[in-house]
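Contributing new records

If you add data, match the layout below exactly. Sequence lines come first and carry their own label; structure lines follow with theirs. Keep one chain per record. Anything else will be rejected by the validation script.
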Amino acid sequence: MPFTVDEFFAVFARYNESVGPLPTVAYILGLVTIALVMARSRVASMIAALILAAMWAANGVGYHWLYFAEVNPAAWLFGAAFLAEAVLLATAPFVARGMTFSVRSDARSVVGTALILFSMVAYPVWGRLAGHTYPAVPSFGIAPCPTTIFTIGVLLLGPWKSVRWLLVIPVLWSVVGGSAAVLLRVPQDFGLIAAGLSAVVFALAHRRDAGLARHDASG
């Protein structure tokens, strides 16, 4: 690893101090996204996806390229991946016409809702209990890990056919960013690992169900 734990948290401190009220704005946008999901309309879902896209773009440029790259050259690649996800999120609702987020009475909705709440409430509380104090903390909406947890949670509330490809980059980041839980003493990032695993489990379940459906149809 090309940086120390202290250098890692120092990046967050400089980043948070430079963006002014942006962490507060991110929380407001998070609450707006929840309200949009509850609206269960196509237009509301399009706006929710655009908010997610803005968060990923802010992470890609603001965090990865402008700050994390100072201590980790791989941040240039990470930033590019985050920008790619931003583009996908921004364009998906216009391409996948059935992409509407909603809370249903199924396992994906339960897990998705839990991840949303974890990213906005439990994640910062867990960080505080672990001894992390602002500004040297990963902030919701503008830092990669809580943003990814939130994104996976929202995407799990969408139709699987529309959101499955949007989950690829967040799941890959759950592997990369999740390593911070142990290597960089960020225990709240165990939630990121759980989020990525949840998406994989649902992907496998949908693949199994599709296989069973094809088998029944052929039989």
